[in-house]
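User: Show me a protein chain along with its predicted structure.
Assistant: Here is one chain, sequence first, then structure tokens.
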Amino acid sequence: GGVLGLAPPLDNSEWVTGTPELLGKVLLHGMTGPITVNGINYETPAGMPALAGNPMFTDQKIADIMTYVRNEWSNKASTVQPSVAEKLRKETSSQLGRPYTEKDLR
């Protein structure tokens, strides 16, 4: 799964189907460094870009993205409401401009 040397898999990933808050933090603020998905360590040359600084990505769109990837491929996880993105955006505003690492989120 994933794109070898570029990104870990989104299918059957605990990062995607775990709590919506975990996925939301990554979408809003990005992520950098190695990441472990289903016990496999992925070294990625480029980080996941942050969406929080782009006004195009409203709370509704962030929730839609989360809901989509949480239910695409073999994933079957709950729908995410825009209020989750709104709450995360407020709670993590000090993270703006600083991508998370796996250590920050685990």
